[in-house]
Write a structure and sequence with these properties.
Elements lengths: L10 H14 L5 H13 L3 H6 L7 H15 L4 H5 L1 E4 L2 E4 L12 H13 L5 E6 L5 H9 L3 E7 L2 H14 L5 E5 L7 H4 L5 E4 L6 H4 L4 H4 L2
Parallel strand pairs: 3-4, 3-6, 4-5
Antiparallel strand pairs: 1-2
Helix pairs in contact: 1-2, 2-4, 6-7
């Protein structure tokens, strides 16, 4: 990022320069990436950038933005940089301890919701295996009322992230977290009867993995 000699970097000038620079480097969604990094730096909503586009960044804000921008140039996923990922219209906290929710997984949630909505008088018990950030279980808890979920993961780190998201979304009355190995579940799980079991484990083959972009492959 070049130094501004005579004037400060404003929101607009950073938007324009970084968007152009990211496009030159081959990044997709360059403007969106720039806006989200700026909004995260300034602790504001994206729409507020356009209401205050002529606002200059302080030196402290600019230094923080440069750090975040450099991480993106090094192909670190945007979601890890800003600590958030969108899924089913909801915002989830994510970091390197969990995989980033994929848009394709929304199909799994939609297919799970359908039969539950068709029987509103029945309380469905659902098991989410390998919950990760908790995005599937929490989305289901939001989308239907007649549901109780057990969400399991073998990773303490993942369960910590999922717990943070459960609290963030206030669905603790519907979602119970348990540490468990899917291949060796405890009696607390194996003796329960579930109406639906959902899971979205890593499913990319070695052949497909070789073709992935570096921000997916390396993170």
């Amino acid at each position: 990022m070049p130094e501004q000699e005579k004037q400060s970097w404003t929101i607009k000038s950073l938007q324009e320069w970084c968007t152009s620079h990211l496009k030159e480097k081959g990044f997709e969604s360059a403007r969106l990436t720039t806006d989200l990094l700026l909004a995260h730096t300034l602790k504001c909503e994206r729409i507020q950038l356009y209401a205050h586009f002529d606002k200059p960044l302080s030196q402290q804000e600019l230094e923080l933005f440069k750090i975040l921008y450099k991480r993106r140039l090094e192909n670190e996923p945007l979601q890890y940089i800003i600590g958030e990922a969108q899924f089913m219209g909801f915002t989830f906290y994510v970091d390197k301890r969990v995989l980033i929710p994929r848009p394709e997984t929304e199909i799994l949630v939609q297919e799970t919701v359908q039969p539950i909505k068709e029987q509103p008088e029945k309380m469905f018990r659902v098991l989410d295996v390998g919950t990760g950030s908790g995005n599937i279980a929490i989305s289901l808890a939001h989308l239907v009322n007649n549901i109780q979920l057990d969400a399991i993961d073998i990773s303490d780190d993942a369960l910590s992230v999922a717990e943070k998201n459960i609290q963030r979304h206030n669905v603790g009355s519907k979602v119970r977290l348990l540490k468990a190995d899917a291949m060796n579940v405890p009696a607390e799980i194996s003796t329960n009867k579930y109406d639906i079991i959902v899971s979205n484990p890593p499913y990319i083959s070695n052949k497909e993995f070789a073709l992935l972009s570096s921000d997916v492959k390396n993170y």
